[in-house]
Amino acid sequence: MRDEHRWLRRLTVLGAGLLLLLLGTTAPASAHAALRGTDPADGSVLKSAPREVTLAFTESVGLLTGSLRVYDPENHRVRTGEADHAAGRSDTVRVSLPAGLGTGTYTVAWRVVSADSHPVSGALTFSVGKRTATATSVLPDRAENPATTSLYNIARYIAYLAVALLLGPAAFVAYCRPPRPAHLRTPVAAAWGALFASTMVLFLLRAPYEEGTAPTTAFALSSLTRTASTRPGELLLTRLALLLLAGACALALRRWRRRIPRRAALATAAALSVALALTWAASEHASAGLQVPPAITSATLHLLAMAAWLGGLTALALTLRRASPEPAAPLVQAVTRFSRLAFASVTVLVATGVYQSWRGLGSWQALTDTTYGRLLLAKLAAVALLLAAASRSRRWTTRLAARPAAREQARVPQPAGGPPLPPGPDPAPAPAPHPHSLRRWVLTEMAVGTLVLVLTTLLTNTLPGRAAAEAAESAPAPDGIRAASVTTVPFDVGTPGGHGKVQITLDPGRVGTNSVQAVVYGPDGGLSAVPELRVTFTLPAQRIGPLDTKVTDRGGYWAADAFNLPIPGTWTMKVTVRVSEVDQVTVSKAVRVVR
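RESULT FIELD:
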């Protein structure tokens, strides 16, 4: 028993360490609505000021207060109309611009909420008349708040784990009928409390998570009111109501257990479980994209099967902990029934997982070329390890279930009348499978299953490969020209305050005539004026260059209107920056030029 407790502690520490490592390195959530086009196009130069800015996404999006903000070249916010959806297009957002925009480069910062409840933000630029230096290099009011994002993600992980530990033991008790199931009440009650508390946290943090603001704004009345009026907020409130109803039903069943028909109790529990799972399916990947009704059905079944398996394993481990070396027939029957339940759960998980993978990936190439695909490969590897551990557990279950049958067969009946049968050779006794050995494999399944659950949560937080490919393929470029190439080159002349970076834009960044713009930023991140700047290009493979761009000072930035790159290839761009009469430095960077 001491070794068993040590094994359990090791698995617990391993799982906790994995979870803390994951939460400690969590980046802002990758949004699931990808920007597929803008008008004006990002980086374009217009002859006259546009009347509005339009953004098109790969799926429908929701709007926030100030979803689209426009800044002029001096970083002053332009007074615009309120952002709204284009007529009949929930995936297209637009904002009207005032008349008389001056010459220069404007920045549009945007932040919306995708149909599967994740916020997405970004920025684009367009120029009226000509490009100019802009002070809008950082937009802190549209950035993610690390504290809010971390707390929100932690609550999501806890909610996923809690729903498995709530529904799984309930299914184990209802179907497997273990002896003396009272010891499962405390874990189930703890899972109910954890799920209720994490759902409350998700509801409170929903508005700060969408807006990218601090957690302290969670209790503002306007934030709570707005969350309650959105689809994610409504689903969270529905989940809370279902949990309260489930708690009331559990108390009623415990008090009037003999008066409530078993079939009615099972039907109620099944309906509540499905409704609870729907609150996840209707707010994640399945709620947007193609084939939404089948996708929601698949996601619901996937979550229920995961809960039945992972939560059922927890209940089985707790049950086996109390088992004696010679298990009674009710325990053997419960283990056998769970083996069938686990097999059915695995079948559902595989079928729904294949469908969801096809729906999210879109192509085989996305398996290795996208973050979603690589996470999916990691999950498949973990599932394979989980199936291997489950196979070992199933062998122990088969041996455990075979022992009562073997004992029955060992009873040789005496013939009715006549001499007794001659004695035969004694059968070799089969080794007795100790229940605690089975429990060890069950604990291994639980540890690997927790890893699968973590990877599943990460997948719901990552842009699907299909959406990424759609955004990349459908992103239009102005007048059929590729977007400009922007390269940032850091420099340091070795003197106090003599460091910074040069941002060089090569438009269109392909073979032929290009315009070159260079902006110098100082150590504080602000614009810096330098007495001399030179930019040259060399193609070592063809022994071409150096070709001088001949950029000139345009009053705050350096530019050349026409510079020719004769052939494609990987060019070496050398930037010489002189910050004083005697201090200068030359830095290099590789730039890819295509036809």
